[in-house]
Amino acid sequence: MKLNLVKLSDGEHRAKFVCSAYDFYPKQIQLTWLRNGQEVTEGVSYSSVMYDGGLYYQFHSYLKYFPTSGERITCMVEHFSLSEPKLVDWDDSLLSEDMTPIAFGLCVLVVGLIVLSSGFIYYKKHQPHTTPATEMLARPEDLLPGKPSVTE
After folding, report:
1. Can you tell which superkingdom this protein's organism belongs to (predicted)?
2. Residue 135 φ/ψ region, left for φ over 0, alpha for ψ in the -120 to 50 degree band, beta for the rest
3. 84/70 Cα distance (integer angstroms)
C-alpha cells in the first residue's frame, strides 16, 4: 500500500489536505483525519473506492479547514493488510522542498536577465560610432556653386 498526503490551497485562506491510498487489496479501507491526535469529522469528504484496472484499488479523503499555527494534521489508515493503523503526519518542510525547483528556476532567470542586459549595454557602448544615413545626405547649402559636393 502506498499513501500520499498533500496540502492544496483553495484560495480562501483555507487549507485542503488530500490523503490518498493506492495499491491496496481487498477493497475495504478506512481513512480518518486527526488534528492534534483528535478525530476530525467536519470538513471531511471522500471519493469512492476506485478500481485501478489491475488487482488493486485507490481511495482519497479530503479535509478542508482553517489552519492555526502549530497544529498537527494526521491521516490515519486502517486496512486489512496493515497490522496496526498507519499514521501519516503533514510535514510543513514538504512544502518548502516542493518550492526548491521553482526558487532555483527564478534565480537562474534573474541571473540570465542581468547577464543579457549587461551584454547589451556593453555592446552598445563599445560599438564603433557610425554616422546615421540622414547626416550623410547633402544639405541644400552644400550644393551651391563653388562648394564641393558630398560625392567629390
Report:
1. Eukaryota
2. alpha
3. 27
Q: Quote the DSSP letter at residue 120.
A: H
Which pLDDT tens digit goes with each residue over 34-60?
A: 999 999 999 999 999 999 888 899 999
Query: Residue 7: enclosing H or E segment and its boundaries?
Result: strand 2-9
Please state, rounded to an integer, the average pLDDT across all residues of the chain.
79
> Tens digits of per-residue pLDDT, 61-75?
999 887 677 888 899
CATH architecture of 2-90: Sandwich (2.60)
The CA distance from 87 to 91, in Å, is 12
Distance CA 148, CA 152 (A): 6
3 state SS of 152: coil
- Alpha carbon distance 80, 28 (integer Å): 8
The residue to which cell 528556476 is assigned: 105
For residue 25, the 8-state DSSP code is S
Kindly state the helix (H) or strand (E) to which residue 104 belongs, with its residue range: helix 92-126
pTM, rounded to two decimals: 0.56
Which residue reads 522542498 in cell numbers?
A: 97
CB 8 within 8 A of CB 16: yes
